[in-house]
Amino acid sequence: MYIFVRLTAVVTILFGVLLMLAGLSGAGYGFFQNDALTLTINNYLEQTNDMRRVVNAGYAGVILGTLAFIFGMFAAAFGQLLLVFVDLATHTRETNIILRGFRAQSSSKQTTANDDDEKMYGTELESVG
């Protein structure tokens, strides 16, 4: 289960990065190739016997590219969040030790492992602080 969630997270991060790059290139194409994009859309509308024509299509490319970039950012962030959850789920003992250390720093006193923790993990834990 661990390897499948980790693989899904890595694939999601890669997909998000590629979507961000596609969005960035789409926005750049819509911004810099405004005339070519408008001409292509008008030629397509003329071939379909549509009476409408587009005056400026560059902003549509910029908006669609920006939306693709934002969706790519969300996908990459979701993949990173999956990796965090996988690491937390597989390293629960280490997570408890780290959290105990944070509590010790916030209360400015040294925290020692209690008997319940030693029974739970079956080993003797060293104090954190």
Structural class: mainly alpha
Subunit arrangement of the protein: single chain
Distance between the termini: 34 Å
Show unreliable segments: none
Q: What percent strand?
A: under 5%
Average of per-residue pLDDT values: 81
Q: How many whole angstroms does the radius of gyration measure?
A: 27 Å
What order do the helices and strands follow? HHHHH
Count of domain modules: 2
User: How many strands, what sense, and barrel or not for the largest sheet?
Assistant: none
- The shape, in one word, is elongated
Helix tally equals 5
Determine the fraction of residues in helical runs and give it as a percent range. Answer: over 70%
Could you describe the 3D structure shown?
The protein contains five helices and no strands. The chain is mostly helical. Helix 1 packs antiparallel against helix 3. The two termini are 34 Å apart.
